[in-house]
Amino acid sequence: MTARFPLMIPLEEARTYVLDRCSRKEPIFTPVNDAFGLVTAVDVIAKESIPPFANTAMDGFAVRSSDVAVVPVQLRIIETIAAGYAPKLVVGTGEASRIMTGAPIPEGADAVVMVEKVSVKGDAVTIETAVQAGNHIRPAGDDVTSGQLVFAQGTVLTAGHLGVLCSLGMSEIATYPRLRVGVMSTGDELVDDCGPLAPGQIRDSNRCTLVSLLNGDGFVAVDLGLIPDDETAIESALLHGADRCDAIVTSGGVSMGDFDYVKAVLDRVGDMRWMQIAIKPAKPLAFGTIGHTPVFGLPGNPVSSMVSYELFARPGLRTMMGFPEPIRTVIQGIAAEPLTRHPDGKTHYSRVLARYEDGRIRVRSVAGQGSHMLTSMARSNALAVLPNGDGCREGDVVDLLLLN
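Above: the chain's sequence. Below: its structure in token form.
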């Protein structure tokens, strides 16, 4: 069933509609080495401590602090303890063990004197500085203790998180799975080779752009190809994509004036809503499902396609992957020059270049704001959110979406 809305609807209404229908995927166990950028599906509880034993933070000598209360003092060296080896001897009164960074603290010792504060002659070491108990010793569990909540469910795993999981001896972790997202372009006017263009033809840039955006955002992009304006071919590509992918992103065929090839197929095989949203660019959006597979129908103009991906597809896909904050955070900058626009009932997403200057983020417009002008998108690193009206003056505060 299709619902058509010729009147423009607010962005938040459209995005809420999309996010409410992007169900979070069921958790799976993922190898830790493949979990970068994924979201934890369970609380991570430590089953052991980090470090597992008291060890030294410095190269030096393990001593009894009572032996070095008055310095200088000479102690007998009884052994050398390297990292990865267990001490064999107990440090007694008047004794010391040479010790390397990370090595276990021997029994009897309660402090480490760094090597720069001693002098060695034969099997004797002269301690030249007094130290207190615990000096340069990392106690067992200093970082993590067994039974501790290390990371809560919903944590986005970074390199540091994965290092901790490896330190805890974990080879896999329950996460929400990385999505496979099919990407297809439609239109007889599009070509994807490097040969000469026939009259009326243009090169397909959207597919490469969307594949790159998806891969950069941590999804697995699946290229479903460039599909001609043929209902049978479009239907076959969509059904094939819905069968092998977690979601589909298409570009083209969703505007009011487009031929009805994509619309006709999606209406037949899916449950779609066709929306005109009060934004510029990226006013047209189709969203729905084929079976249980979400389908994002993005506009064909290159910049509109990228902005629509940013505002709708990316948040929807991140919701499916369990991200606690699927929508990119809006930050504030200062207009370094006027950012002008005309009242038209829409929120404008203007391409700008944002730079950190004098302690503030300052933004300047990028030349070429037409929805077909992809070069200006490549030269920008942010979108300035300009509410309906005349824009903003130099020095005004402006909301920003930083894209990289």
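The first helix runs from residue 11 to 20.
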